[in-house]
Amino acid sequence: MKYNVKKLSVGHCHITLVPENDIEKKLVIIKDDKDKEDKAYTFRVHYQNAITSKIGLKAHLNSIDGDSYPTTVFAEYILEDGSIGNR
Question: How far apart, in whole angstroms, are the C-alpha atoms of residue 76 and residue 59?
């Protein structure tokens, strides 16, 4: 899975998941609420990986929100020391 991360402001970014193969394309299709719940952890890992690759190893996903979940979300992150910080 590739990630497009657009930093909006300190502590906030948009993350877009970009599937690279058929398995990943099937992953981002949400069939119902149970399917969404079952896949939530997997998506959270992908969002964390996206933030880590763009912002740095000390940045951690704090929250997500998005009408286009799971492919595009608005994410809030914090740094390891609990601050938002400038990066």
Answer: 10
List residues bridging with 29 in a β-sheet.
none
**Cis, peptide link before residue 70, omega less than 30° from 0:** yes
As a whole number of angstroms, the distance between CA 23 and CA 29 comes to 10
Per residue of the chain (87 residues), give pLDDT as tens: 999 999 999 899 999 999 999 999 999 999 999 999 999 999 999 999 999 999 998 999 999 998 899 999 999 999 887 776 554
pTM value?
A: 0.88
> What are the φ and ψ backbone dihedral angles of 34, each rounded to 5 degrees?
-65, -40
Beta strands, E only, 1-87 = 2-9, 12-18, 59-68, 72-79
Taking the C-alpha atoms of residue 33 and residue 68, their distance in angstroms, rounded to an integer, is: 15
